[in-house]
Amino acid sequence: MKRPSSVDPMVGYALFYLVFLYGPVLLLPLFSFNDSIFVAFPLKGLTFQWYAQMVENDALIHALGNSLKVGISASIISTILGILAAKAMTRFRLPGRGVVSGMILLPLVIPSIILGIALLVLVLNVFKIDPSLYTIIAGHVLICVPFSMLVMMSRLEGFDKNLEEASADLGENSWQTFWRITFPLAMPGIVASVLLCFTTSFDEFLLAFFLAGNEATLPLFIFSQLRLPSQLPSVLALGSCILGVSFLVVFLSERLRRIGLQKKPAASAEAT
Amino acid sequence: MVSASESLPSQALPPLPTGQRLRAWFYRNEAVRGYLLLSPTLLVMIGLMIVPLVGMVGLSFFTQTYVSIDYTFTLNNYWTIFEPSDKAAHFLGIPFYLKKPIYLLLLFKSILVSLAATTAVVVLAYPMAYFLAFRVKRHKMAWLILITVPFWTSYLLRVFAWKIILGFNGVINSGLVSLGIIDKPLEFLLYNPFAVVITLAHAWAAVAILPIYVSLEKIDRSLLEAATDLGDGHLERFLRITLPLSLPGVIAASLLVFIPTVGDYITPTLVGGTDGIMIGNVVQSLFSKGNNAPLAAAVSVVSMMTITIMVCLFLWFVGRGRLSRREI
């Protein structure tokens, strides 16, 4: 069928695709060490000055702080809402389940520019409040809840419901069952949900663009800097740092996921 | 448990007072308990999404008067969208000298650009997903992570990277000039719809690969063996089994890329230029620079309706195609 010496063309395509995926992204760290204000070949010398400039930039540090505040609040609130929804969805026979889940998943299919405008209209005309970090958090909760619910549903469906029933039969009330059985078993899913929501919020631009008052999050700050050529190298340095941290987070969350998976067969072995 | 109480003679249970009966029913009824648990999430979603969307639709029937909004019902905003006008073109900074329904035209263009990007993403992603599902034997997880990692880095910076690549003094131009292949930078690389398409194709790659990979992975391998045994070649086997069975993944991928990219704002702003302006930019500039929230709302409503109708037609068309195939 296949000539023995021939290289599989699929491998070639996969490598081409990886170059396409990583090439543009890896340009950021490459030019962040380049000793020139212009992002162009040939490269000049090696420098760390853009990183030094970045650390000294107060507006940047402030935006980073805002992004952390928004990301942490939004991911915790969304995960709590996601757990409640997922538990109701997976453990109860709900009439109108399809409509409800469709409604919760709706933000995934509405362009976020429309969500942003709709929320801003509400904030300005109905509540008559000024946009602030709180309005950004509200917007981010809206787009994070669907992700959280999906993650939590797959986790709650992943372990044996009998464990919860056994706990109820042994006389625990529903809160005790939740804290002692469901919560620990759902923990890897909760961590995954918080991380997913945090990264989504941390990277989200459009909703923050509409809902930010005077406070900028990191993407808003980056966007404002992209117009200033003199700021480009330090934006590249910042981008490289975000890239590095993202690698680390993906790596760690994958590790965590594996720990969760290794525990699961052991738990079911105990149960049987 | 229900059957146990039913088998008891009814006089053994003294009738409870109505309040207590209601409470007992309330706590035992699964739907009520389920909805009780669901209520915080549901309330937040209604408050943050349904109410604002309804509000936006309502707003689209009002008129902006300098600083305040005139709350008399009118269809004027919708007439403005469908009516040929060069005022709008002037406002958007586009040199359109003929009278045209400019908002509709831009919506149409956004849909075309988004369709092109979706096609590019899916066509490029399919072989990669195929490779993952059928050729990678070990380290599948490592490959999947490798593909999704760029997706977790800032969207803004991924788009910006293409500006660096395609720009006048960008990587391609400076590279080609310093290699002596061209003596003057090429101007046509950046600030056009093509730049938007290639940037979107890169930025949304992972979103398309995953659903296609999942549907390919689900295919029963014995079907492929049977096809080979019955004399199908590689191409026939792919066209008659693999491709049709992976269609749900392709459909999911297309929708997941198409719907959000129509309203994208960052990519057209950074790499599109005036020629690459899309409906998201129009809505944004109407809202802020134009200070006309009702018209922005009306444009949003028309865009959303158009996208919804397109998606429904697409799903209906695909569903019909698959039904007829099943009949054969």
UniProtKB/TrEMBL annotation, chain A:
InterPro entries: Bact_Polyamine_Transport, MetI-like, MetI-like_sf
Key words, A-Z: Cell membrane, Membrane, Transmembrane, Transmembrane helix, Transport
TM annotation in the entry: 12-33, 70-90, 102-127, 133-153, 232-253
GO CC annotation, single: plasma membrane
Domain ABC transmembrane type-1, first and last residues per copy: 64-253
Cited Pfam families: BPD_transp_1 (PF00528)
Keyword Hydrolase: no
Location in or out of the cell: Cell membrane
Record membrane topology: Multi-pass membrane protein
GO biological process: transmembrane transport
Family to which this protein belongs: Belongs to the binding-protein-dependent transport system permease family. CysTW subfamily.
Protein name in the entry: Spermidine/putrescine ABC transporter
Species the sequence originates in: Hypericibacter adhaerens
Organism lineage: Bacteria, Pseudomonadati, Pseudomonadota, Alphaproteobacteria, Rhodospirillales
TrEMBL record, chain B:
Transmembrane segments annotated in the record for this chain: 35-62, 102-129, 141-157, 164-182, 194-216, 237-259, 295-318
Alphabetized CDD domains for the sequence: TM_PBP2
One of the protein's GO biological processes: transmembrane transport
Domain ABC transmembrane type-1: 107-314
Membrane topology: Multi-pass membrane protein
Example of a GO cellular component annotation carried by this entry: plasma membrane
Coiled coil regions in record: none
Compartments reported by the entry: Cell membrane
Keywords linked to the UniProt accession: Cell membrane, Membrane, Transmembrane, Transmembrane helix, Transport
Transmembrane helix among keywords: yes
Family: Belongs to the binding-protein-dependent transport system permease family. CysTW subfamily.
Database matches in PANTHER family: INNER MEMBRANE ABC TRANSPORTER PERMEASE PROTEIN YDCU-RELATED, INNER MEMBRANE ABC TRANSPORTER PERMEASE PROTEIN YDCU-RELATED-RELATED
Protein name (Swiss-Prot/TrEMBL): Spermidine/putrescine ABC transporter permease
